[in-house]
Amino acid sequence: MNIEMITAAADRLKGHARRTPLLSAPQLDEIAGRRVLVKAECLQHTGSFKFRGGWAAVSALPPEVREKGVIAYSSGNHAQGVAAAARAFGIPAVIVMPSDAPAPKIQGTKTLGGDVILYDRATEVREDIGDRLAAERGLTLIKPYDDAQVIAGQGTVGLEIADQAAEAGVTHGDVLVCCGGGGLTAGVALALEARAPGLRVRPAEPEGFDDTARSLASGTPQGNATQSGGLCDAILTPRPGALTFPINKRLCGPGVVVSDAEVLRAMALAFRHLKVVAEPGGAVALAGALFHGAQLQGDAVIATISGGNTDPAVFARALESL
Amino acid sequence: MNIEMITAAADRLKGHARRTPLLSAPQLDEIAGRRVLVKAECLQHTGSFKFRGGWAAVSALPPEVREKGVIAYSSGNHAQGVAAAARAFGIPAVIVMPSDAPAPKIQGTKTLGGDVILYDRATEVREDIGDRLAAERGLTLIKPYDDAQVIAGQGTVGLEIADQAAEAGVTHGDVLVCCGGGGLTAGVALALEARAPGLRVRPAEPEGFDDTARSLASGTPQGNATQSGGLCDAILTPRPGALTFPINKRLCGPGVVVSDAEVLRAMALAFRHLKVVAEPGGAVALAGALFHGAQLQGDAVIATISGGNTDPAVFARALESL
Fold first, then answer.
1. The dihedral sign for the CA sequence A262, A267, A272, A274
2. Is 3.100.10.10 the CATH number for B50-141?
3. What is the interface pTM, i.e. ipTM, of the complex?
4. What pLDDT does residue B229 have?
5. Sorting pLDDT into bands at 50, 70 and 90, what band is A225?
6. Theoretical Cys-Cys bridge with B78: which of A119, A180, B90, B144, CB 3.0 to 4.6 Å?
7. What b/e sequence results for B197-230 when a residue is b if at least 16 CB atoms lie within 10 Å of its CB, and e otherwise?
8. Is pLDDT at B235 greater than 80 in this prediction?
9. Fold match between domain B3-49+148-319 and domain B50-141
10. In chain B, which residues touch A (CB < 8 A)?
11. Which pLDDT value is given to residue A129?
12. CATH topology (fold) of B3-49+148-319
C-alpha cells in the first residue's frame, strides 16, 4: 500500500464518485469548543464511502476477470458500493448479507442490481460463504476492507480531506474516522501521511465494539466479545484487518470510543445543523469530535460522516434527543 | 435586473457561500420516470439558499451605510441568512420574525447574533414594523425577495445549476424551484436565461398558497386567501413580489402545485435516497418533480431543495410515510 495506489484510484474514480463537501456550522463549533469540519460521505453515491472502495476494486480488475462478475459480503454499505460499481460496468454482483441487516440496505442493494444472499450472523461465517460462492461461479471476491484496492479507494476520502481542510485553513489537528474493519481509517491515514502530515487520524468506534482502540492501545489485534446487536451495525466487525491494522498501528493516534447515546445525539445535531442524514455507525466520529474533546488535540477537528443508510425508526429515535 | 448583477453577486459570494452539490439517486429516477437532479441548497450556510441573498445584499451596501446595521423581516430562513452575513461583516442585524415561526429558526437566528423581534402574523403587518424600525435606528432594510441584490444573490444558485447540469449532460428540461415571494425563482430564471436557455424554470408551491401559479395563469398578481397555518411555513407569502413577478411572468413556465402529503413524502424520499434534510417548504419542488411528472417536459428534471430548517416533530411525521 502506498500513496500512488490511492492517487491511481482517484484517477479511476474521477467523474464517477462525488467529491463530497466538508461541512461546518457555528453551533457545532460551540458544542465542541473548537472548529468542527465534517466530511459528509453520506452524500456519496449509495449513501456511504463504500462506493469508492467498490469502484476502485472493480475498476482495477483485468477485463477478462471482471466480466465473470464479483461477490461481496457486507452488512450493507459495502454491498451497495460494490453492486453500484458492478452495475456501471455491466457485470454480475452477488452480495452475501446478514439476515438482520437494516431493510433499506438489503432493498438498496437489490435495487442496484445486486443478487442478495442472506446468512445468519450468529451461526454462519460470511467468509466461508463468500469463498465457496467465488470458487463455484468464477466470481472475484471483493473484501470489505482487507483488500489493497478497496483501501486505496477509501483513501481518496483522505486526498479530498487534505485539499478541503487546507482550503479551510486547517493543516493541523485530529481527523476522526468511523472505524469498523479499518479500511477507511487506513486509506485516509495513508493519504494524509503523504498530503497533510499535520493531520492525524483517530479511529472512532462505539462502546462494546472498540476492537481497534484496544488493539492500538495494546499493540496487537484484539477481538470484540460480541459481534451483533449493536446500534452501529455498519461498523461491527470481529477484529482489525490483517492489511489495515499494521497501517493504522503505524499512522493513527489512540482510538476514541463513544456511547450509543452520544451517537444518537450526534445524528440529531447533524440533522439540525448540517442538514445531512447520518446512520449510527456513520456518526461515531462526529460524536467523538463533539463529546470527547478532552482527548483531542488542536484548534480544529475533522470528522467523517461515513454513511447515511439508516432505518427511519432509528432516525426518529435520534431526533427525540433534540 | 440583469445577468451582470448575478455574476457580480457570485464574485462577492466567492469563498463565502458553498457551491452546493447537485445530487441524484437511481431510486428517485425510477419514481419520477425520468432523471432527477436535486440542487441541495439545504446544505448552504444557515441551512437554506437565503444566505446567498443576505450576503449579496449586505455586501453591496456602501461601507458607511452598512456599518449602521441592517434589518430584515422573515419567517426564518431569510433572517438567518441576513444575520449570518451581518455577523461576518461585524454589523448589527435586527430581525423581525412571526411569533409562530419554528423554534429552531428563531433560535438559529439568535445564535447567529440576530436581535430578534417577534410579531403576530394574524394581527400585525411585518412591513410596517420593518419600515418603522429602519427609520428609527438608521438601519437598512433587507427585504426577503423584492430587492434587486437579494434576487441577484439567489440567482447564483442558477449559475451553479447551469454549470452542474451541463456537467451531468443535461441542457434541456424543467427546473422546479420552491417559490414563496419568488426571489429564488426569479434569480434562477434570469441566470438560466443567460447561461442555459434550454432549461426552463417552473415555480413549485403548496396547495392553498399557490399565488404565483395562479398569477402566472391569469397574467396578473393574485393573492392567497390565507396567510398562515400551512405546513410549508418558509414559503408562505401573501402574493408575488413587485420586482419578482414581472421577471417570473416573462421567463417561467406554468406553476406546479403539490399537496402536503406529497411534500412529506418528498422529505422522506430525500432522507432515504439523498441523505439530506429538507424542510416542508424546501421539498415542494422535489414533490413536483416526483409526483407531477405528467406536467413536465424533457428526459430530466432539476429540483431545488431550498432549505432544511425543520422541527424534528415535522420531520418524524414525514418519516412515517416510508
1. positive
2. no
3. 0.95
4. 73
5. confident
6. B144
7. eebbbbbbbbbbbbbbbbbbeeeebbebeeeeeb
8. no
9. yes
10. 18, 20-21, 23, 26-27, 30, 40, 42-43, 47, 104, 108, 111-112, 268, 271-277, 308-309, 312, 315-316, 319-320, 322
11. 86
12. Rossmann fold (3.40.50)
